[in-house]
C-alpha cells in the first residue's frame, strides 16, 4: 500500500463528518454536565501493565488487538484500547481516593487492531462517563439514564434498544462459573479452540463467542439469574425499578456478560440494528473490583463508553456548515480596507470569509458556494463615502452602511 494513503483501519475525518462528530461530543458534554459530571482526559498511551491488569492476559484485546511499543528505556507502552483503565489509574496516581464520589466524562481516540468494517476502525473515538465511589444501585440507574438522555439529545434513542443483565456479586459469580465449567466440560470436544482455552481461564467469555458452533452450545448453557443470591437479586431489582420509574424501557438479556472478575451486578448495552454487525453504540456496567485489581484501595465504580463514529452515523440530520459573511473588495484600493475590516468583524464575533484573489464574480461565486449569509462589498463608490454595500444573499436586498456601523448592522445576519 502507498505510504501516501491512510494506514489501514484509519481514515481522515473531513469537515462534513467532523461537524457530525463534534455535534455528538458537544451534545454529550452539555448533557453530562447537567448530571454533575466533569470533563477529564488521560494520556493516549499508558504503561502496558495498566491494560494487562485490567483487561486480563487472556482477553482478545490484550492478546490480539493492542498496539504495544518498546521504549528506549525498555519499558512497554500501549496506545489505549479503552479509557476506563486510564481513569482508574488516574484515581490512584492522582491521589483522588479521598475525594470520592467522583463523576468524570471524557472524549478521545482509542486504538485496537481489529478487522476494519462499517462502524469499526483501528483508530476510533469514544465518549465515556465514569462514576466512582457510589456502591448503591442509584449509581447504575443514573449512568444508564445519562446514556439514554444523550441518545435522546442526539435524536437516535428511538433507534436503539437497552439490553440489561446482572452479573451478581462475587459469590454469585463463583457459583455461576462452576455451573458453566461443568456444562461446557460436557461439550468440550465440540467447542472451538478459543473457547476450550477460555474454559480453563475464563468460562464466562465463552458466552461472548461469535463461533457458530459455540453459539449453539451456549444456547443451552445455564442462565446467570438462576445463581443470584438474595443480595444480588435485590440490587438488580432496584436497578430495574429505577429505570421503570424514569420511563426507560429495557430488554433482559441473560447472555450479556463481562468476562473479567472485577465486573459485577449491572451490565448494559444500547444496541441498534441500523449499523450492520456493529450493533452496540453505548455499553457499560459496574466494576467494583477494578481499582483493587490495579493495586489500589477497594473502590466501587460504574461507567460506560459510546462510539462517537457510530452515533454520528445514526444521526439522520445533516449538520450544516456555519454560514459566514463574505467581505468582497472591488478593486485594488479596496484590498487595503478589506483586511482590517475583516479583522475587526472577526474580533466582534462574526465568521468572515475574505477571498484572497479573483474578480467580484469569482469571489461572489465562492461566497455562494460556502453558503454565505451576506456580503460586504467594498468598491470605489463605497470607499469614497466611507461606507460598504451589505447584500442579503438570501433575499438579494442590499443597503449602503457606514463603515463605522457595519459591526452593529450585521447583527441581523448572525
UniProtKB/TrEMBL annotation:
NCBIfam families: hisS (TIGR00442). HAMAP family: His_tRNA_synth. It is found in: Cytoplasm. Keywords: Aminoacyl-tRNA synthetase, ATP-binding, Cytoplasm, Ligase, Nucleotide-binding, Protein biosynthesis. PROSITE patterns: AA_TRNA_LIGASE_II. This is Histidine--tRNA ligase. The gene is hisS. It comes from Denitrobaculum tricleocarpae. InterPro entries: aa-tRNA-synth_II, aa-tRNA-synth_II/BPL/LPL, Anticodon-bd, Anticodon-bd_dom_sf, His-tRNA-ligase, HisRS-like_core, HisRS/HisZ, HisRS_anticodon. It catalyses: tRNA(His) + L-histidine + ATP = L-histidyl-tRNA(His) + AMP + diphosphate + H(+). Belongs to the class-II aminoacyl-tRNA synthetase family.
Amino acid at each position: 500500500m502507498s505510504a501516501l494513503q491512510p494506514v489501514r483501519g484509519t481514515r481522515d475525518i473531513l469537515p462534513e463528518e467532523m461537524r457530525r462528530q463534534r455535534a455528538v461530543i458537544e451534545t454529550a458534554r452539555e448533557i453530562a454536565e447537567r448530571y454533575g459530571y466533569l470533563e477529564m482526559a488521560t494520556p493516549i498511551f499508558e504503561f502496558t501493565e495498566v491494560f494487562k491488569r485490567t483487561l486480563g492476559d487472556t482477553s482478545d484485546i490484550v492478546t490480539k488487538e493492542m498496539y504495544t511499543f518498546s521504549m528506549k528505556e525498555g519499558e512497554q507502552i500501549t496506545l489505549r484500547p479503552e479509557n476506563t483503565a486510564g481513569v482508574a489509574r488516574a484515581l490512584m496516581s492522582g491521589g483522588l481516593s479521598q475525594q470520592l464520589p467522583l463523576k468524570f466524562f471524557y472524549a478521545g481516540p482509542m486504538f485496537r487492531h481489529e478487522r476494519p468494517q462499517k462502524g469499526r476502525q483501528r483508530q476510533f473515538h469514544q465518549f465515556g462517563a465514569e462514576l466512582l465511589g457510589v456502591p448503591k444501585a442509584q449509581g447504575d440507574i443514573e449512568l444508564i439514564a445519562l446514556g439514554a438522555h444523550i441518545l435522546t439529545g442526539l435524536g437516535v434513542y428511538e433507534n436503539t434498544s437497552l439490553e440489561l443483565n446482572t452479573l451478581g456479586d462475587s459469590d454469585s459469580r463463583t457459583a455461576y462459573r462452576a455451573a458453566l465449567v461443568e456444562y461446557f466440560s460436557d461439550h468440550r470436544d465440540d467447542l472451538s479452540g478459543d473457547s476450550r482455552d477460555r474454559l480453563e481461564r475464563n468460562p464466562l467469555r465463552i458466552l461472548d463467542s461469535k463461533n457458530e458452533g459455540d453459539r449453539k452450545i451456549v444456547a443451552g448453557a445455564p442462565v446467570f439469574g438462576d445463581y443470584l443470591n438474595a443480595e444480588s437479586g435485590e440490587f438488580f431489582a432496584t436497578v430495574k425499578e429505577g429505570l421503570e420509574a424514569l420511563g426507560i424501557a429495557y430488554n433482559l438479556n441473560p447472555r450479556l456478560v463481562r468476562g473479567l472478575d472485577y465486573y459485577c451486578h449491572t451490565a448494559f448495552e444500547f444496541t441498534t440494528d441500523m449499523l450492520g454487525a456493529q450493533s452496540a453504540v453505548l455499553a457499560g456496567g459496574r466494576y467494583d473490583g477494578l481499582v483493587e485489581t490495579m493495586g489500589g484501595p477497594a473502590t466501587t465504580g460504574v461507567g460506560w463508553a459510546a462510539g462517537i463514529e457510530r452515533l454520528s452515523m445514526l444521526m439522520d440530520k445533516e449538520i450544516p456548515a456555519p454560514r459566514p459573511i463574505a467581505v468582497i473588495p472591488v478593486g485594488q484600493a479596496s484590498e487595503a480596507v478589506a483586511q482590517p475590516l475583516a479583522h475587526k468583524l472577526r474580533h466582534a464575533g462574526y465568521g468572515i470569509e475574505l477571498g484572497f484573489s479573483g474578480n467580484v464574480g469569482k469571489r461572489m461565486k465562492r461566497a455562494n458556494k460556502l453558503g454565505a449569509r451576506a456580503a460586504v462589498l467594498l468598491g470605489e463608490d463605497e470607499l469614497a463615502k466611507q461606507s460598504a454595500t451589505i447584500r442579503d444573499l438570501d433575499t438579494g436586498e442590499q443597503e449602503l452602511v457606514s463603515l463605522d456601523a457595519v459591526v452593529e448592522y450585521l447583527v441581523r445576519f448572525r
